[in-house]
């Protein structure tokens, strides 16, 4: 799998990197590819269906830029929210969460349109090349107003045109908040479980089932979950879950014993 770091993809918020592989280019391209693979239309049903596969795909990418994955994780968190809503119809979402879901569907539909147009351009570009004849006389444009057109009429028409121009609107400045990296979260979890031998995912991530979770907390919970999966993959910790959607027990056989030094009087 080939990877390149460069400019942001079309239809996405500005980020500091551009992830490109042979299979997908950016989080929206990966998500759209999974939906088209299942021959589904963009909507809550399709997004809920591909949520698990999306998370599995970004975990499968071994050379993932761990220090800057906020864009992928925000998409993943919204997919988890959509899937939770499909499984639990009585789940109540606040206005921000509903807005996140609508924004993801809107950006995904826009990206689908642009990707289709780009494919059309790649297919047809260069097929018919028309060469301009040499020696063609140059046509010099000349402004020749009618006799009844006065400077006052022209000034009035210009004012009308300027009045119809859209007003300049100052957009609010976007701020990017620092999100903890997966490596940092892996270090925290390793230290936590090494000191106590055993903990749970809810204790480590401070996630309480049934409690409304803010967007920032949701991203940290997802980073904690990915860090736990990576430590399981490396054999550092072992996890157990006794029921669907139940809490996850995390344990290790390596105990980090504190060292004490005797103070000489």
TrEMBL record:
Pfam families: SMC_ScpA. This is Segregation and condensation protein A.
